[in-house]
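Notes from hallway chat w/ T.B., transcribed later so I don't forget. T.B. wanted the structure written out for a chain they're using in a teaching module, and asked if we could keep both sequence and structure tokens in one place. Agreed to drop them here.
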Amino acid sequence: MSSLLNHWQFVFLVSLSLSLTFLHVKVLAQREGDLRLAGYGASRLAGRLEIFLGGEWGTVCSHRDTLDVTKVACRQLGLGHFVGHVPGSSSLRYGLGNGAISLEDVSCRGDDLHLLRCDIGSASCDHHMDISVMCSGILTPYEGEVRLVGGAYASEGVVQINLHHTWSTVCSTDVEPGLATSMCRQLGYTRALSVQQATNVTGQFLELPSSSHCSISSYPCIQSCLPDLLSSPSSPSCSGDGLSAWSITCGISESEFGNATSGSTTDCAIHSTQAEEYEVRLHGNHPDHGRVEVYVEGQWSTAQELRDEEATVICKQLGFPNFYLSLTSSDSSLTDLDLEPVPGSQIRLFCTGLETHVNGCSFSSPDVTDHTTDAYIYCSPILWPFGSLQLVGGAGPFGQLLVSPKRDFQWLCDAHFTMAEAEVACRQMGYANAIRVVENSLLSDIPNASLLHYSLLCSGDEDYLMACQRRSLVNEYCRDDLDFVAIQCGSSSSTGGWRVRLTPVAADNDGVHNDSHRGNVSGGVREGRVEVRLEEGREWGGVCADEFLDLSAHVACRQLGFETYSSVAAVESGGDDVAGHLTSVQCTGFEDLLDYCPHSLATTNCSHLVTINCSDILPFPDGLLRLVNTSSSTSLQDPPPSEGRLEVSYHGLWMSVCGRLFSQEAANVACRQLRFEAPANYCINACFGQGTSDIHFGEYSCHGNESSILDCWGQHPQQRVL
């Protein structure tokens, strides 16, 4: 399998210039300024960044460093801290955007609460500079943070406030317009559009004090309106004396930026003057580093020497995603933190690293009491949280798996890595499920990345991969240059209006057999009867076989997370008692979901249902080139052919290129992209045979200096007229 991945056809392009509608994920809102993550293989936590402006979705691009843009986008989406930049060109993993570029040359500070609050430059850019983000899903809310939950749009919902490390629903007799606007401004919007009572709300409630400070004018943070917020009582109910939960709708207008100030995580965080149990502070007059002190049983105590796990939790509690240095008081580099020991005792913390507050850790009293092992840490605002995951190399929901057990990412060994571990990893990264595990993979070269020195044993129910049990690895099991694990996740079962699945059928049904796992691939069902559920609560049903052809099978397999199909067949519907929900499904091959294909709803049961076999071919990025020459050897040990029919990969299909406008300049670009020198010759009359696909790339005209044939001027992929 690894030799296939290194084969010549997997030559990654620098750029891509076709437009196509890709799979869109997490589409909660279509209001001005809302964000979404899109692209092939996008998940709930990662994808190409798009913003809704002027009545349409468009991409966000920039010539400048996008690290802080990523931080702001993940925060605005409510997806926690960022994981980091998408390795390599975003167009390879999620596909280039199409249509409008809504924001160009964006630059953020990092603590902005809305992307539109960032600096929008004047330099123009194209889709090759579209920004993609990867979010961790690990939330570390600050004290006094506001969020909206349960709304149909990201900009509306029931108001909740994080106070005393707990999310509570606002409960009051009224929410003044000024307070509602302050809540919206703390979320990065410019105004509150509406305020109304919310019903059928359960959970923890927070009774707000009077908001008279905001009855006339508004502030960027609610603490300016509610100076006594920290003393607000909590309650398991919100009833009596006219009390109610409240829902607000926020809006944003660029014309109001000049006279409406937005809050920030730095400005709006509430700091108590009275210590609370398990509160943490860094002593030394620096917000991001100092001696660690914890308030326990009514007194401040210094924390004894910390492991990476404890240092991570402390920084998360202080609002930082991670730490980058942990020392003790005996270290000679602590000259700027030369502090007297605080009166009181020392404590020892024991954390897993996944907690967001030390109250979830265990404590003990150390034997040493002379403060020589007092802990000092340096927190980082730019590192990703402990236990973050990335997929690198490959494309879409497939790639080599990396985990961040400390402050950097490490490869995982394929020894003992099973589908149980893959299920946990895929869910953590926002995908619906795991499809397979691939051993001996080497898809990408990350400088200075090392191999994780232990393996993980999961039950399959854990929320985070690093929550699984750890077991030691014997060194000979894992070689630094070979034994890496890659996984393929399935994303589409949680997106779109329909749910799709494959149900294995019995061999005597004349359908597709559920075969055993092949080679080094292990995973779930990849062949069987296609079943759909048109909406939640309805029964699953089959797809009638009439008019369901190869390209419809291709779309169904893509929706299930595979790259394409290998066969399609029909089985008699009798005996299985499965009704046909759909009929006359006729896809073009470029749809993201079966929902988007022309179809009809079945009014009567059909005689035959569709079965498909999804391909084991690993996902590959759009825009690769290959030369197909049936007269040449196809052995992977042989050098790639230097002549043949030119084909381009797009949306999981290999397509021939129309030759009407093809020129010597286009041939030069193609050969350079294939890492050959200039071509000796080319022909445009199918001299190496016609392509087998009924889809082809349109006519392309190149200047000769393009880095990819897809940078040339041309048409979109289209059906070939037969």
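Follow-up for T.B.: The CA atoms of residues 456 and 470 lie 5 Å apart. Might be a good example for the class.
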